[in-house]
Design brief:
Layout (H helix, E strand, L loop, with lengths): L20 E4 L4 E4 L2 E2 H7 L2 H10 L5 H13 L5 H7 L8 H15 L9 H27 L12 H10 L10 H13 L7 H10 L5 H12 L7 H12 L5 H9 L20 H16 L6 H15 L1 H5 L6 H11 L7 H22 L24
Antiparallel strand pairs: 1-2, 2-3
Helix pairs in contact: 1-8, 2-17, 3-6, 5-6, 5-10, 6-7, 6-17, 7-8, 8-13, 8-16, 8-17, 9-10, 9-17, 10-17, 11-16, 13-16
The structure holds carboxymethyl coenzyme *A.
The site of carboxymethyl coenzyme *A has 19 residues, from α16.
């Protein structure tokens, strides 16, 4: 096969140069533009982090205000887009709806958009970040038959998302600052993670010069899978299945059994062979919110904590360096905040949109990057003649 290197899934091939996110899985380090994720989660707010990821530096107060204004200006959906929702069965999964609605936006921003123009690229990126909370929230409100809510610019990004998810037309919405802060942190922690499956999907789609809204829809599709963004949903289902601490050994035994496809959801990571730094932050947030809501004795949290302790002491998990990942606790936290399980990955998609558009901008800022074209190791039949029949 000549000069081809066989690297299934490009696990050891750098597909691009990037100055956005740094991960050292062995050391358990994650940094956006050089800033450790723990510091950003502690000191920053989501839109500031979004600016950092998209533009490369933390914004000044004036830059942040201008950025926020631009996001506020673009956070509504075209009223015609809203009719898309009505075409879905009401029990459609929010991620299915989001793939479709974000993809459909490409039809709204296509003819007059020239992605060779940096200003227009930036405009598309801001539109995507701005609209995603309403797109996600509407997929939820539609599924439960509640009237769709519009953005309100007196809230920050996370608070606005929450008021669109939970606000009712017949009473004032009261934002709980503790939960809003926790949501903001969840968004920060999930904003980017270098060349993961969904981001690589976005980059590959974008390498052909495709419409950015269509590229992000491709990213949402990839994120949906249970081995990627769908994991937090699977974690909660697993914890509910386990039910109480005495059933944990059985679950652990199943996870270790090679004849059984069951895995401990929320454990293990392709890169982190140490504690996922995001898991530590989110565990703390989960404890804070549970205490704030008087849910310290949440049975799911009890199972999660016990499961973590047992797995961390187990030879199988130690040998394979399987630690809890970000999804292990995000599921518990989101659930405590009243976010329905089927919306978990949609929340992740809202956050990751910032990463996707940052990577998309970076790709287009490099004029030397042509269309991606992976090769293959052909293992089919050798050339043969069509038979005479
Ligand atoms: N439970 C039990 N065994 C596991 C698990 C698990 N969660 N994860 C990995 N293993 C075992 C696996 O069976 C293999 O064992 P052996 O060497 O004996 O065959 C070994 O550990 C290495 O596994 P791998 O599949 O080669 O590891 P990977 O780096 O390819 O997979 C992973 C990473 C995240 C897909 C995997 O750990 C997994 O399926 N975890 C559960 C799903 C999950 O929590 N996903 C969220 C990932 S973080 C969020 C995101 O990035 O979207």
């Amino acid at each position: 096969h000549g000069l081809l290197a066989y690297d299934p899934g490009y696990r050891s091939t750098a597909s691009c140069k990037s100055a956005i996110t740094f991960v050292d899985g062995d050391a358990g380090i994650l940094a956006y533009r050089g800033y450790p994720i723990e510091q950003l989660a502690e000191k920053s707010r989501f839109l500031e982090v979004a600016y950092l990821l998209m533009f490369g530096e933390l914004p000044s107060a004036a830059e942040e205000a201008t950025f926020r204004e631009a996001v506020c200006q673009h956070n509504l959906l075209h009223e015609q887009v809203i009719s898309f929702y009505r075409g879905f069965r009401r029990d459609a999964h929010p991620m299915a709806v989001m793939v479709a609605v974000v993809g459909a936006l490409s039809a709204f921003y296509h003819d007059d958009m020239d992605i060779r123009d940096p200003e227009q690229r930036l405009n598309a990126a801001i539109r995507l970040v701005a609209k995603m909370p309403m797109i996600a929230a509407a997929s939820y409100t539609y599924s439960i038959g509640r009237p769709l809510r519009y953005p309100r610019n007196e809230y920050d990004y996370a608070g606005n998302f929450m008021q669109m998810l939970f606000g009712m037309p017949n009473k004032d919405f009261v934002l709980d600052p503790v939960q809003a802060r926790a949501m903001d942190r969840i968004l920060i922690l999930h904003a980017d993670h270098e060349q993961n499956a969904s981001t690589s999907t976005v980059r590959m789609a974008a390498s052909s010069g495709a419409n950015p809204f269509a590229c992000i829809a491709a990213g949402i599709a990839s994120l949906w899978g249970p081995a990627h963004g769908g994991a937090n949903e699977e974690v909660v289902k697993m914890l509910i299945d386990i039910g109480s601490p005495e059933n944990i050994p059985k679950a652990i035994a199943r996870a270790k059994d090679k004849g059984d496809s069951f895995r401990l959801m929320g454990f293990g990571h392709r890169l982190y062979k140490n504690f996922d730094p995001r898991a530590r932050v989110i565990q703390e947030s989960a404890r804070e919110v549970l205490a704030h809501l008087g849910l310290e004795n949440d049975p799911l949290m009890a199972v999660a904590l016990e499961l973590e302790q047992i797995a961390l002491r187990d030879e199988y998990f130690i040998e394979r360096k399987l630690y809890p990942n970000v999804d292990f606790y995000s599921g518990i936290l989101l659930r405590a905040m009243g976010i329905p399980t089927k919306m978990f990955t949609a929340v992740f998609a809202v956050a990751r949109t910032v990463g996707w558009v940052s990577q998309w901008l970076e790709l287009h800022n490099d004029p030397t990057h042509g269309i991606d074209r992976p090769r293959q190791l052909y293992v089919g039949p050798r050339l043969r003649d069509y038979p005479h029949r």
